[in-house]
Amino acid sequence: MKLHRTTKALVAGSAALALALAGCSSDDAADTTAADGSATTTAADGTESEASAAVTFEDAYIKEKPADKGMTGIFGTLKNNTDEDLEVVDFRVEGLKEGTVFEQHATEDGKMFKIEGGHTIPANGEKVLAPGDDHLMIMDNDEALEPGQMYTVVLELSDGSTLTQELEVRVQAAGEEDYGEDGELGNPGMGEDGHMRNMNDGMGDEHDEHDEHAGH
Question: By Cβ atoms counted within 10 A, which residue in 8, 152, 153, 206 is the most buried?
Answer without folding.
Answer: 153
